[in-house]
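Service request form, structural biology core

Requester: graduate student, group of Dr. S.
Request type: structure prediction, single chain
Budget code: on file
Notes: please return the result as structure tokens.

Sequence provided:
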Amino acid sequence: MTAPVEAVFREEYGRLLAALVRRFGDLDLAEEVTSEAIEAALLHWPSEGVPPKPGAWLMTTARRKAVDRLRRDRVLATRLAVLQVEADRAGPVPAVEAGADLPDDRLQLFFTCAHPALAADDRIALTLRCLGGLTTPEVARAFLVPAETMAKRITRAKKKIREARIPFRVPGQDELPERLPVVLQAIYSIFTEGYAAQRPDLAEEAIRLTRILHRLLPGEREIPGLLALMLLVHARRDARDGGLLLLAEQDRARWDRPMIDEGRNLVVAALTGGPPGPYGVQAAIAALHDEADDFASTDWPQIVALYDVLLAITPSPVVALNRAAAVAMRDGPQAGLDLLDELAGEPLLRGHHPYAAARADLLQRLGRRAEAESAYRDALHLAGSEAERALLRRRLGAL
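Core staff response, request fulfilled:
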């Protein structure tokens, strides 16, 4: 029962939570009864089997538990009644386009979690927790912070939503420029978590949500940029053999060519009609990797040039790290190592295992084996997932 039940919970958690928030207007209540419904399923499904419509079963169970709580808690019932009156007075929430139907309540929950009243990091953390169904430690790893810190951040964000009475709705056109980038970053964080932890369900959920956003907001160029980036990376999933394999090690015949073609077409849309955005540039870099017949024939000069553009748009140590790795392929390992040494004092990279892994690779290529071994062990200590640790152990063993 473990695999099918886990798959159902992963698929239904965000949908169930979003529907309950819309129904009762309270995120804490929705989270609590969602968890109780899942606990009830864990109790009944092993003996009775997974129902034909597990989402409907969970929804019925969760709504009953919510009603029971409201009957027992008069204070909570009164507060929710006030919220309902305010919502009725405000009238129907305008859609992004007149008459447009939202195909999924989770979109509204995404924009609620990305409300500008919340701190930027809190928005993304709450979105990962509520929409992706990630545990607090998994969200913490995405932010490179301790789990205790992330737990406090998520609690603070939910408290802010409750006290500020942030509405559960999709924003109007005037709000989108401020709200949409945070939603996109949250979706991409879900995708990268799925990639790092070998959880294709998370990656595919991020892609699905981005497709919905693309249909709702066809004029926003960064949405096809993000979708292209995820498709171009996810197209390589079968060549990873259930783990993490470097691009140089992957069998490119196993890459999903239709997915790559779709991603390349979306790159054109993302880079047409104005200055490029960061997701569009990253997608263009991914497209160059996917277009190459083999690793040796990759267009490294163009990739370095695109990283120069990306660094100008979104300067960060992580972008500089990736650029250094590309420079090493264009100009040689010493040139890349020199750039990495310039980044050694960046606080964000101290706990970022790809930095230590990149140094280890370049030191190995330069024949400095003892230093490379030490750097690989540093990276192994910092790696957050078993897939990442397996790759590093393999590299260390080869050394």
